[in-house]
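Translate sequence into structure tokens.
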Amino acid sequence: MAASPSTELQGARILVADDEPGDLEVLRHLLEDQGCEVLLAPNGEVALSSAARGRVDLVLLDVRMPDLTGLDVCRQLKERPDTAAIPVVFITAHEDVDSLVRAFEAGGVDFVCKPFNPQELLARLAARLRMADSARLLARDNQRLHRRNRHLEGEVTLRRLLGHSVAPAARAQATAWEYNGLVAESPAMQLLLSELDPLRHTDAHVLICGEPGAGKELVGRTLHLGSGRAGGPFAVLRCRALPTDVVACLESRTRALALLCGIGAGAADLEDKDAGGISQAEGGTLYLDEVSRVPLPLQATLARALRSGTIRPPARAEPLPVDIRLVAATRCPADELDRGALLPELRACLHPDPLQVPPLRQRLEDIPLLAKHFAGRIAARLGVAAAQLTPEDLAELRSGFYAANVRELRQAVERKLLEVHHGVPTC
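Result follows.
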């Protein structure tokens, strides 16, 4: 009877090295039934070459092989910086103490004896993958703490030199994106802020839902600028720019992965000045605009990167560290996400309670305040005196926006100011 699939094994890339073709086939079928990607090596040389070529999550290694033994292969893997952290589980037909001691001394973390019990083997591999993920997360957290300590030390020095001023880049970004002017007096927005506030004090990845133009990106920036990552970058990836045919076309998959990582050809062609991927968001926040537009295979890659703390960009030998906070935004309702628009593995990485940004028609009380706020900022940008919006103007704006959004409200206010100051008729 086939073993039940294990969550830890699904998507894992496992290298199996054994000089017995029959054993290789048995292990391949067993692991592929669990959703693993299996690499086969009939000898030690092939095993070393396969481990060096790409990501390997675990090595299942026969102790006795011709030429290079399993012990030799394990020692060489542990000597190489790029493969030293890969857990090695030995397969052995000898359970004597001397053989086991030599296996552990070579760097192995566990062993299974031939003939092996499939359920025992899978349980051991799943446990070792969990431990390896935990070790990577711990190492990533230690690196993050080290970087944060350096940042805090620098911030303390900067405050002393500049009279306790906040980070200039964060202040400029807050002004540019109107962080200080977030209008939220309506009950719907007050509820959103009450849900957002506790998230500022965590590093949890967050999902933001809302209609187009509701202000999802502003909410994402508010979350970033109020968090411990405020001194880091806020990179935006417009997911509509990602190729969709990543399964059928290798070139499209390579380009999509490069855009997600923020490297390579095409990554510099994105429209937004602060656009980018994981590398641009290092130490800060990556905002995915319309995350449901990310192809499902790429969603799986992103989920694994968030769990493991690394991602391997195309045509790069070294993995890219993933030290980001992910803020994913979508116009899709939550029930549509549950029906397949968002991969369960990626959804599990996000905070269980999404932030729901209310549309303007559900916060009509905010329209006069928003209009006055926009009028002041637009007038300053145009270099004109701030025009006072009359009660008639506000009534007109309010009556015309039951189904519109904040972005369109701002455009309407700008048209009104142009009409007042320059005689430009409102279209």
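Note: Residues 118-161 form the longest helix (44 residues).
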